[in-house]
Every structure is written in C-alpha cells, then in structure tokens.
Structures
1.
Amino acid sequence: MTDMTITAARTTLLRVPWPETPWLKGHAFGPARSLLVLDVETRGGVTGMGYLFSFRPELPTVAKLLNDIVIPRVIGKDATAVEGIWNDLWRFTATYGRGGIATMAQSALDIALWDAIGKRAGLPLHRLWGHCRATLPVYGSGCFRGSGGDGMIAKALHYKSRGYKAIKMQMAHTDDLAGDVDNVRRMREALGPDMTIMIDINMGWTADTAIAQGLKIADHDVYWLEEPVFADDFDGYRKVARALPIRIVGGETHFTHYGLRPFFDDPVCPILQPDPMRGGFTDLRKTAMLAHTRGLSMAPHLFPELNVQLLASIPNGLWIEDMGLSEDLFVDPVPVVNGTISAPERPGHGLAFRPEILRDCRV
C-alpha cells in the first residue's frame, strides 16, 4: 500500500497574460489571469495538484489562509481521508468561513487531494467515481456585452463555425434595456433556428426588470436566463421562474450545497451551475446527488477541464461551459471537438500546468 500521508503542500501564485486572440475582446478581467496552484505531496511519492482561477485579485489572501491555517492542519493526515478533511476544515473555519476565501482555500486543497487519490488508484476521477458517459455537449460562452451587439454575434458565429451547437450571450449591466432586447433578436436572426442561445444576466436585474425583459425575449427561443437577480435573492428567483416561460438557472455565485439549499427546497430552477472552486470536488458531488434527487440537472460554472470529470460520472450532467480561459495553460488540455468534450483517461484529473508558465508567470 502506498503511504498517502500528507508531508508537504506548496502554494504558487501566477499572473498569466491572456492569449492573443480577438475572441476575448470585450472581457473585463484585466490584463492577466490570476491563478493559485497548490501542490500536495505524500510520503509514498504520490502528488496532487489543485488550482484556483480568479477574475479578481483576492488570491494572495487565499494563499495566506492556505499557508497559515489549512496546510498546517492537514500535514500528517492521510490524503485519502478527503471527506473527513473537508468536514474538519469546514467546522474549523466556521466562524470566518462557510463561503468566500476560506471555502476557496479548502476547494484548492480538495481538488489536489482527489487528484492524488486518482493517481494512487491509477484511474481518472470520472471512473473512480463511477463512469456514466464519456462525451458531453459544450456551449460557447463569453459573448461579452463589452464587445457590443456586433461583437457578441461575431463570437457566436465563431463558435458555430467550430461546431458548437449552443452559445451564451450577455444582457443587463447597461443603460439600454431596449438595446438588450434587440441584441437577442439580432443574435437569433444571425444564428438561425438550430443554435441554442443561453443568456447570462450576471445578477444585473431586479425581479421585476427580469420579468419584463424576459417576456420581451421569450419569442426568440431562449434556452435559459442565467442569474437574473442577485445570488441571495431567492424570492426573486422564484418570482422570475414562475412568471417566465424560459428556464431560470443559477448557482455559480453560491458556496457549497448549503448555499444552494433553497434551490433544493423549492426546485423552480431546473439546472444548477455550481462552481468547483466554491466547494471543491467533494461538495460538487454532493450537489450533483442532491440535484438528482430533485430532478435537477447540472451545468457547472466554467472550468471544463475539471467539470468534465464530474459530469462524465453522473446521470444528470447536462452542459459544459467553455470560454477559452485556460486552453493554453496545460500540458495536455481537454479539447472541444465539434461542440463536444470527452473525459480524459489520465489518472486523477489529468491536468498539469505547462512548465514555462510555472517558471515565467510566478508572482
């Protein structure tokens, strides 16, 4: 038996320039990508890697919490005790955690531990967890409002030319409600009737505005309206979901299955979009199970290279989101082929950062 006692863990902060592509035009993410990489070592020589990706500069604070609190607490523990470690950290950080930076730190560790467990077993995570299917549909995300109506349409057509069958555009966070509606009309005309169109509001409306705007775009065959109101406005979610003929979805801004509980208690949103960096793989799997018991589907937020492991292992996996944020980061990226993504067969999550990025982009 390989000794899986945790002997060391190291954090690395990265600032990686965006790739030179016109398809990230209109993003509001700053000049570079912020990443935190956590490498966990075990006595038997098995290592695991977890990482966080942020659009905002809070990762140095997460690194400090990892180095000061999380890592010292797990040194000497068995990496295969991932459930016990998750619950111990959840309770230990309860007075200042249960979300935010503490949960992000815990998530990086959790992803690294599962990577080590998969490597120890010689299995990709989707097979360790119980393989369900190999290939899943991907929607092209990041048709950014900042690029304007023409820019969103151009990016959507780019996705269509690559074989994607679905795209996601943005509304809200502008002063032009009529222009928002017209952008949806123009997008449908440009893509034709066979492409699926999702719309992301990014918590930009109140419930009454979401209902009024939703009724104006309903005739354009919109597949879902995402995060129409602020994450904690569960009453608003319920009002919008019951007033519109469009699927109302959300979950990316909530932390763990505890934060998503109102969606289980009153399942008006048929698709949940939790983020693996707001609870880790351990909690993402719990969320998927709870969703399945309520007849809900899963379409997790971003990170297709991680989320494909979960979605290939559950019966209620529906969509993978791809924005092209990380294709250039990994030694073996997980490619999108003709609008689909296939779960890799490498042990663990199967990801490793390119050595030159770890060397040249270190903060």
2.
Amino acid sequence: MPRVGKGRCRPLPWLLVLAIAGCASYHPAPLNLAAQLQPSIAALDHAGLQIPANGALSLRDVAELAVLNNPDLAAARAQRGIAQADLLAAGLPPDPSISGGFEALLGGPGDVSAISGSLMQDVSALITYKADKQAAQAGLSQVDAGILWQEWQVASQAEQLCVTLDGDARMIASLRANAAGLNAVNQSTAKQVAAHNLTLNEASTSMAALATVQTALNTAEQGLSHDRDQLDALLGLEPGTEIPLAPPQVQTVSAAQAKQALDTLAQRRPDLIALSYGYTQADAKLRGAILSQFLPVSIGAAGGRDTANVMSAGPQVTLTLPLFNRNRAGIASARATRAALGAQFRASLAAADGGARALLADAALLRAQNAAADAQARGAGVIAVQARHAYAAGMLDALSAANLQTAAGERGREAIALNTQARIAELSLATLLGLGLPPIATPELAP
C-alpha cells in the first residue's frame, strides 16, 4: 500500500472528529419546585392585551388572559415539542455504519496480516419516507388542533365563571336586601312582643324566615369564594385574588347561526379535526406497514486484503424476503387502528352534533323560563314594597309581611339563577358549535 507522504491529511480521523463535534451534548435543566402563581392581574402575561382604564375586565379580556396564562395550557403546549421531534425524525435518514477487522498472521503460507472493512447505509427510510413524513405531519397537526381545543375550552370556562360570579354577586345582593327587610320586620315584631301586643308565636315566624335567609346568604358567600378561587386558578393567580369584572355581555346564538355551524361542525371543531388528523396518521402508518414487508434494505461496499496480499472490494446489498412474516402482524394492527379511529371519529361527531342540538333546545327553554321568572319577580317585588308600607302603617300583620317579602326574594333569586343558567348555556352552545374560532386546516379523509 502506498505510504502517506508528509503534509497529507488522513481523511478518516477528520471525518470522525467532525461527526463527534456535530453530536448533541447534555445540559442540566433543574426542576423548579416553587409554585408559579401570580399575585395580581398586572403580574400576568398580557401579550399586548389592553386593560380598560377602569380596570373592569370583559368576558373576552378574561378569556384571553386565561389562554395566555393557564398553567395546564402551558403544559399542553410543551407537548408540541414531542410531535415536532417525531416530524424531524421522519425526515432524517439513519446514520451509515462502518465496520473494520484485522487478523494478525500467526502462521501458514501467507505473508501479511488480513484486514477488512465495510460501509453500509440502511435505505429503508427512503422506501417509507413519504408515509412516515405524512404520519408525523398529521401527528403534529393533531397535537396543534388538540391544543386549540383546550384553549377554546379554557376560554369558555373562564367566561362561564365570570357569568357565575356575576350571578353569585346578584344572588348575595338579593339575599342581603331580603335579610335587611326581614330584620326590620323582626325588630318591629320583637318590640310588639315586648309591649305584649303580639305573641311569641307570631314573632317566631319572622325570626325563622330571617334565619333561613341568613343561612342561604352564608352558602351564597361560600359559593362566591369558591368560584372566585376557580377563576384565579384558571388564570394562574394566587387564591383569593380579586378580579374586577365588567357586567358580562353574552350574545344569543340564533337558530340560523346554529344550523350553519352544525352543518360544518366536523370542519371547525378542533377536537373533531384532531380526530380526523389521527385517522390520517393511522392511514399513513398503514401504508408504511405495508411497505415494511420488504425491510430492512441496506446497500454499501465492502473490501479487504487476505493473508496472501490479495485485495478485493465490491458492493453489498441486504434485504428481507417476504416469505413467512411479511409484517402481517404490523399490517393487521395498523389496519385495525385505522378502523378504530374511523369509528371513534364518527361516534364523536354524532355525540358533538347531538350534544349541540340538545343544548340549543335547552338554551331556548332557559330563555323562556328566565323571561317568565323575570316578570314574576317584578310583580312579587311590587307586592313586597306594598306589604312593607302596609305593615309600617299597621294595616298588615307581621306574618303576612314576612311571607310576602320572603316570597318576593325567592322569586327574584329564581330569576337570577335562571338568568345565570341561560347565559352559561349560550356560552356552552357557542363552544360546542365552535363559533368564533379561526379557520383550521383539515385533512382530506373519508373515514
């Protein structure tokens, strides 16, 4: 073999050095064990969101802050890196393999030691490249659609909690007003009892009504605190953080809007789009499994020198003959997975359609009930005012005054509860129909 002259470089060591230099290295990332909760709205990530001058946040403001700051969404977005890594892996060929051997001459007719070497490249990835790439891209799109659906749900949950908090505040205000009115009746009754103008039996009625209202007030205040903590957690705030809210404005979903949305549900709901991408991914994996019947396939070159100083070199090809295994188990599993995902998509679409239609009917019923309850509450409120004046003038007994005020308070709170339920139903319906979502690319499939 020719000797390497002075000043020449040996290519193999330099190739090894370059290969090692391009390898990844490890960098520690210590886990942060401190809770990352913010003390105020101002400390949250606003991403350009302009807070109103009066500080009161609308439903949209709270929804955007929740999407930007929700801890669970941050964790979900981190999962996207895994799907991106899968897409990167699908586009990279495997590294070539190199082998070499040396056999020292220990005896016999030979006069040199034997050496051998080979360079092989697995080309299986070229055969399945298109299917693998499509599967990985569909997987990434599925993750993106899933994250969007989570964001949409978090935004809707934030809006619903705002409406719930508004209902809690109105309920507490009604109970406090009712308690104040009953307390006035109770104090007056107590004076009449002390003056021996009324019996204790008559006084007990107003006392019992006041106790019932106070118990309901305590429960309502506890509910308000719980709902506020839920909204704080949704926004990544410390528990007990006050969030200034503007009176929530909820748009009613019309029948025409609902019909149009239902007709295109599979093309707009992110969870359904995620399932369709999952089906597309399974279809691509099935094509890859069928192509894998002939894998692995490797090509390369090998050469060497024997002990008689005879040198040889030539190409090498390695492939699998699909005689017995033929990847039948892998193909059957991929085909079954595709069929299962197709069935899951159809079932989810039917459930989404049926759920939206049922909620549409429920929202219409709640609107009608709320309108009737509002009218009844207004009428009961007028009677309660008249009863207070009549009681103050001595024209009505304490029992009747207490009963009429209690009835008016209950009517008013029933209207508040129905109003809250109706608005939450409208928000839920908009979420189920995907109203307001940006357009999302969908795969072409026929599950």
